[in-house]
């Protein structure tokens, strides 16, 4: 028990260190992506922190299997290089006991991954979608504007400019707005509408999902660039309907569904693929943990990290096969019965083959 606790502690320490580094790297990538959304006005800054926090459990479910895999390789590899593993084997701690201990560790981490995939991530996906559909996320045009800078809408048909913003960033002063009209049926050059106003503010429409930018005390110009037949209209109040970004930094829509709902509609290829993907991450965790045992066997004269490169290549092939199999199930190329399970069977055969080669060696 003392040896088992010692080995478990070293594996967990290495796993946590690797997972933390990977989490910070991937989380930084997500932060950059969200900051880009903020810069172009697709999401407001007041929901940025919440969106980033929603990514943590999703990333943990993906990175914990890899962290455990590399953690076992690093921890056991150090034991082999320092001759500790040979001493443990001479003391009666056989490969079978090491494999059993690793299997139990893999089961424990796999249970955590399954909990994240089956329960936490669907709930987080639903919360994220609710946040992006809420007024807090949609009523953000003024908040994302930068005084003195032009901003183009997501559809490329609106250009906005404001000179100043109020302290609470709810009203803009000296507003310029350009909107491209739909081209005429004759195929001529499309007309443009220009608005110059003293003030502007955002207003929510009665219909769900619609937003208007209301301008006051200004002029409206409409016509085709380069032609003299244009119209000038003076107004006290003029509202422009804003296009919806439809850019939700979320994952697939099926991820919002609970696991029970996916099972009830299992005959749907998309739901079946998502259902199998959630369980595949738990299976992947255990199989990678078992594979790491023979791959970590390094001769004392070799470097402790010599086995990481082929091990990482195996992981890349494994995870990409799962991605391909999931896509094939969604498209109906592979039957739901075969689904993604064949990838795990292939991986199990590979683990058995590697064990047999190591035993003979």
Features of the shown structure:
361 residues, alpha+beta, 6-stranded antiparallel beta sheet, 6 strands, 56% helix, 16% strand, elongated
Spans where pLDDT lies below 50 across 5 or more residues: 247-251
Helix content: 55-70%
Major pleated sheet:
6 strands, antiparallel
> Tell me, what's the shape?
elongated
- Please provide the count of β strands: 6
Order of helices and strands: HHHHHHEEEEEEHHHH
| Mean of all residue-level pLDDT scores | 83
**Which structural class is indicated by helix and strand composition?**
alpha+beta
Beta-strand percent range: 15-25%
Describe the overall structure.
It is a single chain. Helix 1 runs antiparallel to helix 2, helix 2 packs parallel to helix 8 and helix 8 packs parallel to helix 10. It contains 10 helices and 6 strands; from the N terminus they run H-H-H-H-H-H-E-E-E-E-E-E-H-H-H-H. Strand 5 and strand 6 form a beta hairpin. The protein is α+β, with helices and mostly antiparallel strands and 361 residues long.
Can you lay out the helices and strands and say which pair or pack?
Blueprint: H1 2-39, H2 48-81, H3 84-90, H4 95-133, H5 135-138, H6 141-144, E1 150-152, E2 158-165, E3 171-180, E4 192-204, E5 211-223, E6 231-242, H7 259-264, H8 269-295, H9 308-331, H10 341-360
Antiparallel strand pairs: 1-2, 2-3, 3-4, 4-5, 5-6
Helix pairs in contact: 1-2, 2-4, 2-8, 2-9, 4-8, 8-9, 8-10
